[in-house]
Design a protein that fits this description.
single chain; mainly alpha
């Protein structure tokens, strides 16, 4: 299985590096939104609540623009039939999960410094802020991977993906926004409760998705 996961990951990264469709779309959206918000606020200080909400709304819609592409591309190009015959479904799911987690982490690494710079964000507790950002990104990636497989097989594409994702991701967004607020407000109020919740949520979703993926991806 490890060899199948590695080969599928290598193929996905090569395809993405050639087209750069998903990464360019996500980064362009996030960068445009961040710069626009910075221009509109014109240096006016925003409350930690508003800053956290804006940051995670940018993250959410960036994920909606990019994370479903990994399965939609397989269906559009007809390569899912080859994958079903040559690669085990467990390896397919795990490789796509790893790809989406790495992909979204790269997007976050780009977005976060730009957001902090343009909105002049003062982070009081950097460790909790970083832990919240990346644990929240992992939770979004884990949830979006399984939903992307469902949407690609249903033929609904982007609109259906966003509609299905938002209700399921409400607990993730709530915990991520709350954890970000704490890291911006007061060093004494910092805690790792929210990042731990996000990691536990990621593990639960990944485990359920691993068990159910075969029934979604393979037509019987």
């Amino acid at each position: 299985m490890a060899g199948e996961i590695f080969r599928n990951l290598l193929k996905d990264f090569r395809v993405e590096l050639r087209s750069r469709f998903a990464v360019n779309l996500s980064i362009s959206f996030a960068g445009t939104m961040t710069v626009s918000i910075g221009i509109v606020t014109s240096g006016v200080p925003l409350s930690p609540q508003i800053i956290s909400l804006l940051l995670w709304m940018i993250f959410f819609f960036s994920a909606m623009n990019g994370l479903s592409h990994i399965f939609v591309r397989e269906v559009d190009q007809g390569t899912f039939m080859f994958m079903n015959n040559k690669i085990g479904t467990d390896a397919v799911y795990l490789s796509k999960l790893i790809y989406n987690a790495v992909f979204f982490a790269v997007i976050q690494v780009f977005i976060t410094p730009v957001f902090i710079f343009f909105l002049q964000v003062e982070v009081k507790c950097a460790a909790v802020f970083i832990a919240t950002v990346f644990s929240g990104g992992l939770a979004i990636s884990a949830t979006s991977t399984f939903l992307a497989a469902m949407v690609s097989r249903a033929g609904g594409r982007g609109s259906l993906f966003t509609i299905m994702s938002f209700p399921i991701l409400i607990p993730v967004l709530w915990a991520a926004i709350n954890g970000t607020i704490r890291s911006l407000e007061n060093r004494a109020a910092c805690g790792l409760g929210n990042p731990f919740f996000l990691l536990a949520f990621s593990g639960m979703i990944a485990a359920l998705s691993f068990l159910l993926f075969r029934h979604v991806w393979i037509e019987e």
